[in-house]
Amino acid sequence: MNDFHPRWQAAAQAARRAKDESSELPYGFTTRVLARFQNTPVEPWVDLLTALGIRAVLTSAVFFFISAALVAWQMDFISFAPSWVDAPLSPKLLLP
Fold this sequence. Notes:
Elements: H1 4-17, H2 29-39, H3 45-74, H4 91-94
């Protein structure tokens, strides 16, 4: 597909043969590196958003269930109809 591996091997062999005394980069090295970086294909946005979207949906679902559990745990389940003990005795309660 591309010839990265042979170029990488050639660059590694050239680096092994280089003198240890040279501490400066060759002229135009940074420009070549940046030009090659700009020519590399970029990952499509659809794949990136799909991968991040699935993580976001799963994370929000987990947060939803955790928050729903916390609300249910802290909620007082009080019925609005009075119980037999709380309601005063009256003939209306005794009638069917």
